[in-house]
Amino acid sequence: MITIQQSSCLMKLIKRGDEMTKISQSERILQFIKEKGSITRLQAANEIVAFELSARIVELEREGYLFLKEPVKKIDMVILSE
Fold it and tell me: Is the N or the C terminus of the chain less surrounded, counting Cβ atoms within 10 Å?
């Protein structure tokens, strides 16, 4: 789980080429965290189609964002068939 601890950075909204995808994923990640309070890799992949969450977090940290990172406990799931 990753939550924003503090932010003092303004993101650039206009980029060219391949960077546009990275910036839009970063923006979606920030928006998701602001709305829901945290994000997991599974949520990033399924809900905002960002498959490299750790890479986007590193990029955001380089821009001045600070994140509180906590491991998520695994939950054992059993699938029952009829």
Answer: C
Question: What's the whole-model pTM score?
Answer: 0.61
* Pairing mode of beta strands 66-69, 2-6: antiparallel
- Does some domain include residue 81? no
How many domains in the chain?
1
Which range marks the domain in which residue 45 is found? Answer: 2-8+18-69
